[in-house]
Amino acid sequence: MIRAGVLGATGYAGAELVRLLASHKDTEIAMLASKTYAGQKMSEVYPSLRGVCDVVLEEADAETAAQKCDVVFTALPHGVSNEVISALYEKGLKVIDLSGDFRYNDIETYEKWYQVKHSCPELLKVSVYGLCELHREEIKKARLVGNPGCYTTCSILGLAPLLKNNAIETKNIIIDAKSGVSGAGRGLGQAYHFCECTETMKAYKVATHRHTSEIEQELSLIAGEEITLSFTPHLVPMKRGIFATEYANLKKPYTKEELLKMYHDFYQNEKFVRIYDNALPENNHVTGSNFVDIGLTVDERLGRVIVISNIDNLIKGAAGQAVQNMNLMFGLPEDEGLCGAGYYL
């Protein structure tokens, strides 16, 4: 059995990790840490886990984790993660980090967009970007994985086949993405009170959201040239989900069928990517699952392709993807513990 620990277990992503790990046949939960709720049972913080995970939360350090765990998931805020992870890595543990601290190839890009100094930039040389569909072989050999963001996962997978096939222009890509409120985390904030976010929509961090740089990094690697794009996130009145609409100008006329073939070929062996041939994704098709659903249409009048991609921000956009990475790192079937369909209602 793989002994797993979660630091930051009581945030939304951390709690989803606990739920998934508790039902994973090859893992046992060896340690759960929470600074706020140390001393309480996980099931006292999240009563839905009563009888499923009654582990007592603790304030863990690297020494404790090294004694108890084979792999540690860190679901901590950016800037906090890199200090903890340095110690965990030195102890020989495998680490999967859900913050943005180890997603970047370039330290200057990270520090520019996150506005913090990275305390262990040397680890960026050994960390692997944990988008399994694109970096599978590197992840299998990694000891430190930077789990991708939710917006980034949805957007990158939505556009990757088009860039790989040199089908779209690279300088005028637009991504319009909507997120459920859980994407803001469990912390208190006026903008996320029920009366502030129900029956309304709002854009935020327009042209400045840090996930822009992460998306550009990965899409540039696929395209083999620098990608610059416009990314606008929106908060919508639902609990969970990322619904992204990507717009790109085609380099030459393509039919919808020709573009769909690119997607089917690119993702032909992927267990968690579902391509819609005759419809478009909807948020409730992926809620509670590790799937990414993708559909598209061609605007022949404008010579533009419009792609719809959709994930659950807490599963494929966070905890499910982290478990998928763990499976690869330990040589397990990639879909172990993640096979279930979502819940439609």
From TrEMBL:
Catalytic residue list: C150
Q: Which InterPro entries match?
A: AGPR, AGPR_AS, AGPR_dimerisation_dom, AGPR_type-1, NAD(P)-bd_dom_sf, Semialdehyde_DH_NAD-bd
Q: Where in the cell is it found?
A: Cytoplasm
Task: For this UniProt record, give its keywords in alphabetical order, as a comma-separated list.
Answer: Amino-acid biosynthesis, Arginine biosynthesis, Cytoplasm, NADP, Oxidoreductase
Q: Which reaction does it catalyse?
A: N-acetyl-L-glutamate 5-semialdehyde + phosphate + NADP(+) = N-acetyl-L-glutamyl 5-phosphate + NADPH + H(+)
Tell me yes or no: is Transport among this UniProt entry's keywords.
no
**Which superkingdom does the taxonomy of this entry point to?**
Bacteria
A single Gene Ontology MF term assigned here is: N-acetyl-gamma-glutamyl-phosphate reductase activity
What does the function comment of this entry state?
Catalyzes the NADPH-dependent reduction of N-acetyl-5-glutamyl phosphate to yield N-acetyl-L-glutamate 5-semialdehyde.
The family this protein is said to belong to:
Belongs to the NAGSA dehydrogenase family. Type 1 subfamily.
* Full protein name: N-acetyl-gamma-glutamyl-phosphate reductase
